[in-house]
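Re: beginner question about structure tokens

> Can someone show what the tokenized structure looks like for a real chain? I only ever see the sequence side.

Sure, here's an example I had lying around. Input first:
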Amino acid sequence: MNNSEIKLEKYNDKIIRYVITGLIIFLPIIFNPFGFVVFALPRVAFLYIITTILTIIFIYSCIKNQTFIYKKSPIHLLLGIFLFFIFLSTIFSLDKHIAFLGDYLTYEGFFSWLCYIILFFLANLYFNSEKEIKKLFLILSIPLFFVSLFAIGEYFFHWQIMEWHQDKGNRVLSFLGNPSFLGVYLVLLLPIYINFLRLKELNWKLRNYLIILNVISIISLFATFSRGAWLGFCIAIFFLIFINFKTIINFLQQQKIKAILIILMLIIGCWTLINYTTFGQQITDRIKFSFIQDPTTKVSTSSGRILLWKQTINLIKDYPLFGVGPDNFATSIPKYFLPEWHLYFGLQAEKAHNEFLNLWATMGIGTVLSYLIILIYFFFKSISYIYKKIEKNYSQHILIQGILAGIIGYLFTMQFHYSSIDLAPFFWIFMGIEFSLINQNNEIKKNNLPNFFSLNFVKYILNSIAILLMLIVIIFSYKIISADFYFIKALKNNNANLIIENLEKAIQKNKRPIDYYLVLSDFYFQKGIKTHNYNNFDKSIKTLEKIIKLQPHNYRPYFILGNTYLKMAEFAMNKNLVFQKAEQAFNDSLKFFPNSVDIRSSLEELYILQKQYNHN
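And the corresponding structure tokens:
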């Protein structure tokens, strides 16, 4: 390899590191204030585009140098097995479109998981030196600072980045769009920066900056009122204390007065916060209501998650091998809802609110077992490394401990929450970096590619594939975001014709979101009533039938179809036929949500109307 090729290879390495850094800087803060799905859509588009760019750069570098570059490690085999089981569950899924691309609100299908694994591989390969990794985390402290600062402003001064579609109460979202997501983001990063304070080479300016960063981030964490995140953070800090117990004891013995003052300040501060501030009282109330019954619903919030876990286990019993498919949980779980679930309508069920149960329910036993093996291997290697002598690599151990503590906090939080495209890339990238730090003895392997890759026509073909892949990802991103734009434009419009026009454009751009069809169907129906043009009723019905064909396992369109027929009965000549169609739709809906209170109430209303009509 000549000097120009070596320089080009180093240049490509730098680009990949910069692009990965840019991804994790902007992924949790970009949003689309002009859309309905404000956070997930722009972030999945960003994730897909950046991962595609990274993949193309990596493959280009390999072909240019006629070598495939990788680090020899058992973790890559384990990740390959993990991805293979995810692919199997995708092939055997209930809804393959959702399995590949993800559900409308979460977008965590097979392609998202593929992105996570690629990011792990590249982070592990290209972040090798301690200097590069420290630089990465110092850069990441900047978005963390502004996210935390905005969260504090949101809680105490009611700052808003946009008008929200739902009431968030006193919980802060910052740029993450969900208090729990913000909590997970903070849990992943906070232990790293808390541990950074132990670095001896920090100058006083940087040390003071990190102290301020940690303080505002901890306040933001409390302001999320996310109990899972609180628990995850406590576990992460406990781990840091446990792993550095001897160091802490030595500090207490050498700096007794300073240690006593710090402990007293913490005790007094916590006592004052809890007893004399509204913020502290809200924190204690949040903890209490985990176990105390809400007087209106007669249930506690923790019992809601336990009930969801029981229902998820029932789903797993029916689909133990391959699950229902990646991101198919939301459409599959209503079939297993127990009668008391209606008391917990405020608790979302997009996922199982437990990482391991969700993996098993959606992607099967092979996926969850391979994931567990990956984690066991990761923790074994990390803990083994930490317990080695640290005299020569003190600052590197600080990095390793902080990243590991953040990952431990994340995993504990995930037992009460769920993976998302906003934050899962952080987890996988940090794991890749951790493996790079603890396996620095592993040389970068370079396997020569077959000679035909050097042929010009092969290079042209590969360049064409790369361009085509990039175009597909960009067009996909454009379509889902523009469809979302037309949808919100329709919702904000007062002109019925323009509303319908925008909704039809939204469906033309993205045919999968169920809400587009449900809203369009309702507007067709309302237009039919106002104009007395009953052809609009037919359009309303046909719109619902389209989404039923696309998502035959989803109870919602059947339920809305039944209610639409029920409302049509007033205008129908043959009311009995309409009643029969409504009953059929409700019964179809009950197949996928047998214990729904709303569906059964609608059926009762149908039978009452039918009796009245037949009696007359």
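Each token stands for a local structural state, so reading them left to right follows the chain. DSSP finds 24 helices and two strands in the chain.
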